[in-house]
Amino acid sequence: MTEENVAAAELAFGEALAELEAIVKALESGQLGLEDSLERYERGVALLRACQAKLDDAQQRVTMLVGELEDEGDTGE
Amino acid sequence: MTDERRTISVSDAMAMAKVALERVQVRVVGEVSECTVKPGYKAVYFTLRDEGAAMPCLMWRDAYASCGAELRAGQLVEVGGTFTAYPPKGRMQFLVRSLALAGEGALRMQVAALARQLEREGLMRPDRKRPLPPFPQRIGLVTSPRGKAVHDVIRTLRRRYPYAELCIAGVRVEGDAAPAAIVSGLETLYRHGGIDVIILGRGGGSYEDLMPFNAEEVARAVVASPVPVVTGIGHEPDTTIADMVSDLRASTPTAAAEAVAPSTEEIEGRLRSQARLLARALRHTIRDGEHRVRALAQRHVLRDVSGVLAVPAQRLDAARADLLRAGPRLIEEAGERMARSQDGMRRAAAHVLPRHGSALALARERLLDEGERFTKSFERQVALEAARLEDLSPLGILSRGYAVCYDETGERIVRDAGSVGPGTRVGVRLARGSLGCLVEEIRTEE
Question: Domain span at residue B193?
Fold first, then answer.
């Protein structure tokens, strides 16, 4: 529940998805009151949006820590 | 030697050949083929070949056991022994007395010895293998910056999982300097921090090409990794020591990249299913609440939300007011009656019992007290009834967050989204106040 203070967009994809899955599980348990259900539902929707946004604007980032990347087509190694 | 014109039996001829062959003692290097090592057999049979010739060999069991090698087709071996003949089949054979793996074969033996040692240390135990993070944010890669492997990994991750940053330590993976370079590449990644999983890879090559991945220092660096290491070294059948001690062995660099990253399709499928479950769970919660409200609303006292509530409450109010009014009046009447009797009595007894006047005043006081007690207890009763009604009231339910939707006339409760159309006005009763709403969109549940 402490995670709820973190904006959904600031979570790593895996964290957001894990929280979303926990929310779904809690909602499915049917143990929550209506207000709580609505609150979590809204949080769940925010997490879904954040995950989708992350998927939509993902661009591969490649960082060379050691060595220099050479073009493909080189034989050998 | 023998007289060529003399005729001898086949057995004698083969015996002569055997003696002659057994004088030839040599060391031979060749590739093993057609190797038969069977538990019940007294000897191991195999053929040594080169491009131009084949040589059938046999080696007695105990000699084979003591040489320490495990024969497999394709191995290059060096054997020492003599030729011999097997008269019953008329076959020439080489009787192997000593056997050693040559070239790559020798390397394989070294590697096998190191593998056994590391295994004894427990470095290959299955419980040492860590699970891979499901959604890595930063993936490390140690491989050559040249050639196919690095591009295979980049391409695979771009296709499947472009969400992670790929941090590459491009190092030499061939030659004598390679083990140290690989270790330093791994250590660079460990130090870099924030890396969730590491791929150690290289493309296919000969057994000797893969030797750096059989180096003990590389194995120990993999074991020391703070995050899971996935190896993708060479092609399918090649297994190096680095593979054996890693957390997951993939057959190629591409397979290693696939192993560390879930595919976009998989992820999106998972998101979609979560979205579906989320909506369904909330619908379920709401429907459940609805049922409970409906069940309550069906109770006799609550049939009509406004009327049923109002009538008993008003009736109670009226009764209460009546009582409040009636109480004092009763007392008053009693007082008047008493006053009248008092008067009468006073008149009658003014001269007979003048001293009884004080007793009458006392009785009057008592009656006034009585009346007050009566109204007080009724007030308590009313309060109790009101509280009970409050418990049953839909207003109580509304205060828990439910709302009741009425149609335009305000008389009928809207229970089905399909029963109103866009543009219809509806009223929504909340815990405090109500809303006049215009329907914009109808969503009927599937």
Answer: 125-262
